[in-house]
Write a structure and sequence with these properties.
Elements: H1 2-16, H2 18-29, H3 33-53, E1 60-62, E2 70-77, E3 80-84, H4 92-104, E4 108-111, H5 117-129, E5 137-139, H6 147-156, E6 160-166, H7 169-180, E7 185-189, E8 194-198, H8 204-216, E9 226-232, H9 236-250, H10 269-284, E10 288-291, E11 306-309, E12 326-332, H11 335-343, E13 347-348, E14 350-354, H12 358-367, E15 372-375, E16 390-391, E17 394-395, E18 408-415
Parallel strand pairs: 3-4, 3-6, 4-5, 6-7, 8-9, 8-14, 9-12, 11-12, 14-15
Antiparallel strand pairs: 1-2, 2-18, 7-17, 10-11, 13-16
Helix pairs in contact: 1-3, 1-5, 2-3, 2-5, 3-4, 6-7, 8-9
Length: 418
């Protein structure tokens, strides 16, 4: 109950300070202020959720097979949890992990991304104000040069019992190797390569709206952003035409603090270069630029929202995650073909599809090799839903009633001689 009360107070302080916290996010990573405000409320909701879950960590009494024994199952906190978070959601990726850890009774050491340490420190200040004891929520900011060394220490120190990481698959694999030495509990939310399938039966206008939200939120820099659009032959041309018009009409590149802005800058020069490389490769193999395609006139890290058609599965943008404002469209003919293309990757975080055929909805939802499916919906993240992937997209789940289990150990107690 004490943990629940403190987490609830932390939640309230986040809501009270939402505008300041949002400004910090926009200053740190460039996302539009409206999106940053949305992230803060989403972040705070995890503290509220786990404040409630803290009091629902139930064990079990299991019927024994012999008369003189009783079997109990207890749930206990794993211990110190190291929390390593990315720059694209510098607040939400912390609270989604830390809320669960603190609710379970663990203490945490947070290593925020080197690009966005201020959000983590601001949350620490509010944690202090909420009465969370010193030493329970700890933050270690570090430079890009020191990131690998700090990550290794967190993963190898025997005092750390648990690692929770959100970031690239490549980095996740390195951390897993480090954690193996002391057989730590691990949660990994790694890279995605989300397919967005639009079937002939879909409501095209709804699909376009979902595509816009799914692809261009945070300028395409989210783990669950659509990376490959698969559109069935019968509605392909109509979808591409409407999608291009929606991009040109509704998306505005600019400073994150400008109220009109929907697309802020990318995080750094390296991110811009990757988008450019993917576009150049696709065009060299026959893809067509429908809209966008180059750096924005604002310069530096700003890039035009881009739509490509005539895309094939041999192009780089359909083989690896772009993490930028690039939407490549592949035309397909049959449901089986779409599922085969969608599943022909080694990751599986999120997947989306639009259809009005109930039988098809069941088939495709079950066959997509991803941890999360959006059916006629482009935004699926919520505090109530279990967030996580399959294949090389990760281990474990965050949020939901399942999220707290990642920070608990089961202890079997056998009472004999009764």
């Amino acid at each position: 109950q004490e943990r629940s009360v403190r987490l609830r107070r932390w939640y309230e302080l986040m809501v009270e300070n939402k505008d300041e916290l949002a400004r910090i996010i926009t200053a740190e990573n460039g996302k539009p202020l409206k999106e940053a405000q949305g992230e803060i409320l989403y972040s705070a909701s995890f503290l509220e959720w786990f404040a409630e879950e803290a009091r629902r960590v139930y064990g079990d009494v299991v019927p024994a097979s012999v008369k003189d024994r009783r079997i109990l199952v207890l749930k206990q906190p794993v211990g110190v949890a190291a929390i390593i978070t990315p720059w694209n959601f510098p607040s939400a990726m912390i609270t989604r992990k830390v809320g669960a850890a603190l609710a379970a009774g663990c203490t945490v050491v947070v290593k925020p991304a080197e690009d966005t340490p201020l959000s983590a420190l601001a949350l620490g200040e509010l944690a202090n104000q909420a009465g969370i004891p010193a030493g329970v929520y700890n933050v270690i900011p570090c430079s890009r040069q020191q990131t690998a060394a700090v990550g290794e220490v967190l993963c190898t120190d025997p005092l750390v019992a648990k690692i929770s990481f959100t970031g690239s698959t490549a980095t996740g694999k390195i951390l897993l190797k480090h954690a193996a030495g002391t057989v730590k509990r691990v949660s990994m939310e790694l890279g995605g390569h989300a397919p967005f399938i639009v079937f002939d039966s879909a409501n095209v206008d709804h699909a376009v709206a979902g595509a816009l939200a799914s692809k261009y939120r945070n300028s395409g820099q989210t783990c669950v952003c659509t990376n490959r659009f698969l559109v069935q032959k019968g509605i392909h041309d109509k979808f591409v035409e409407k999608f291009a018009k929606a991009i040109e009409r509704e998306l505005h590149v600019g400073n994150g603090f400008d109220a009109k802005t929907t697309q802020g800058p990318l995080i750094n020069e390296k991110a811009v270069e990757k988008v450019e490389r993917h576009i150049k490769d696709a065009v060299s193999q026959g893809a067509s630029i429908v809209t966008g395609g180059k750096r924005h006139s604002l310069g530096k890290n700003f890039f035009e929202p881009t739509l490509l058609s005539n895309v094939t599965t041999k192009m780089l943008c359909t083989q690896e995650e772009t993490f930028g404002p690039l939407a490549p469209v592949i035309k397909f003919e049959t449901e089986a073909e779409a599922i085969a293309i969608a599943n022909a990757v080694n990751v599986g975080l999120a997947g989306y599809f639009y259809s009005q055929d109930p039988a098809q909805i069941w088939r495709v939802a079950e066959q997509l090799e991803v941890g999360m499916v959006g059916v006629n919906e482009g935004i699926i993240s919520s505090v109530e839903g279990p967030f996580g992937g399959v294949k090389e997209s990760g281990l474990g789940r965050e949020g939901s009633k399942y999220g707290i289990d990642e920070y608990l150990e089961l202890k079997y107690v056998c009472f004999g001689g009764l």
